Structure to design on (106 residues):
């Protein structure tokens, strides 16, 4: 699962196996074995290096479906804007609850 996700991201970014291995400073043979699911449990250091080069959060490599795959671009921009505005999760939850309450009052 992780290997296929890494392979798909690598190809999306137009990187060869050698290029990704070089940029991440990891052995090409090890990367290949991960992508082919021969090696199934890469270290956190490996994941950090790969995620850094691919410019994705480590969690997106580990989880079955990344949050970014589940959300369209407009939702992603709204979430980013909220985070950059220093809105806390609790404040956001309160806003949602208020909005639900307001809709019920109609």
């Amino acid at each position: 699962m992780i290997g296929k996700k890494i392979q798909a991201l690598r190809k999306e970014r137009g990187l060869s196996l050698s290029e990704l291995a070089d940029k991440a400073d990891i052995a090409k043979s090890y990367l290949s074995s991960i992508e082919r699911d021969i090696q199934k449990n890469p270290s956190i250091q490996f994941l950090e290096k790969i995620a850094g080069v691919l410019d994705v959060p480590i969690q997106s490599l580990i989880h079955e479906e990344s949050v970014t795959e589940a959300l369209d671009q407009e939702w992603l921009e709204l979430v980013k804007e909220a985070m950059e505005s220093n809105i806390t999760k609790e404040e956001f939850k309160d806003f949602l609850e208020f909005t639900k309450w307001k809709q019920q009052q109609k």
User: Anything to note?
Assistant: The chain is about 70% helix and 0% strand. The mean pLDDT is 88. The chain has two domains: 2-68, 72-104.
